[in-house]
Write a structure and sequence with these properties.
Blueprint (H helix, E strand, L loop, with lengths): L1 H5 L5 H14 L6 H4 L13 E2 L6 E2 L19 E2 H19 L3
Antiparallel strand pairs: 1-2, 1-3
């Protein structure tokens, strides 16, 4: 048991209970990778949002900008993913306009 607990992750008892329930219900057990939360520390992530006032990128966990302390917009945040999609649409539109389509 100590070897299992030393590996980290979910508590060994919780894992055993989930596997037992899966066996009783006749469904395959859920892989441990799906049970773990995604790592949100360090670096940039798809759902980091840009402050509309100072344009500083903030972690998705923040409710206010780390730089200017302005609250996050209530109608949606400009995330890195949304900004990339918007840039891609703009590029495609510019190419179509250039060729008269």
């Amino acid at each position: 048991m100590r070897k299992i607990a030393a590996r980290g992750g979910l508590a060994s008892g919780e894992t055993r209970r989930k596997k037992k329930v899966a066996r009783l219900l006749g469904i395959p057990a859920v892989p441990d990778e799906m049970l773990k939360r995604p790592k949100r520390s360090g670096g940039s992530h798809e759902y980091d949002w840009r402050c509309p006032h100072c344009h500083h990128f903030n972690s998705e966990k923040r409710r206010a900008c780390a730089k200017c302390k302005a609250l996050a917009p209530a109608n949606g945040r400009l995330t890195r993913k949304a900004l990339r999609e918007r840039a891609e649409e703009h590029r495609n539109g510019a190419i179509l306009r250039k060729h008269g389509l």
